[in-house]
Design brief:
- With 184 residues, this protein is an all-alpha fold.
- The protein has two domains: 1-108, Alpha Horseshoe (Serine Threonine Protein Phosphatase 5, Tetratricopeptide repeat); 112-184, no CATH class.
- Helix content is 79%, strand content 0%.
- α4 (54-70) packs antiparallel against α5 (76-86) and α6 runs antiparallel to α7 (111-127).
Length: 184
């Protein structure tokens, strides 16, 4: 069997697990069925990664993240993996997946991880030459690092300096951000 067909078989089995018949509902709990579906979808996503089918892998990983949420588990890692896959094919989808991971981290108080993801989003905006969004994201990243109780002062300062650097290069924009003038 070729690898792509194998991946689609895993997806088919996962969907059947998620929408079971009457007897399946009697003999297994919803959580068990979701966990089995998650395992099958992870296998499919890994096959798509091996085949460099990044869009498909990202879509499957987003589905995995949704199942993790349904299981009341941390779904951020799946969003981050999806963002990585999307980064090869669709910058905006990559940013959207990172924003979903960011939401999970902020809700759970993991501000250092949130700062890291926000910084990556800022760098992606900077690559796309969207300097205003990049600057705003660097500022948010610095704020997240500032909220973290761990010693992240150098990360925080690096983000704030990058924010100030970008803002100072945009004519008349420092009027909107007087704190950028203070940092620079």
């Amino acid at each position: 069997m070729d690898r792509e067909k194998e991946a689609y078989e895993y997806i088919k089995k996962a969907k059947q697990n998620q929408n079971p018949g009457f007897f399946s509902k009697l003999f297994s709990s919803k959580e068990t069925r979701l966990e089995e579906s998650l395992d099958l979808l992870e296998k499919a996503a890994n096959i798509f990664k091996l085949l460099k089918k990044w869009q498909e892998a990202g879509d499957i990983l987003i589905n995995c993240a949704q199942i993790q949420r349904e299981l009341n588990s941390d779904s951020a890692n799946f969003f981050i993996e999806a963002a990585h896959c999307y980064s090869f094919v669709d910058s905006q989808k990559s940013i959207d997946a990172q924003n979903s991971a960011l939401e999970v981290y902020t809700q759970t108080g993991k501000f250092q991880q949130a700062g890291k993801i926000q910084k990556q989003i800022a760098e992606k905006h900077e690559e796309n030459l969207d300097y205003i969004k990049a600057a705003e994201c660097f500022k948010k990243a610095g704020d997240f690092y500032k909220m973290d109780s761990m010693n992240t002062k150098s990360y925080q300062q690096g983000c704030f300096l990058k924010f100030a650097d970008i803002i100072s290069a945009i004519p008349n924009y420092t009027q909107c951000y007087p704190e950028a003038a203070k940092v620079s």
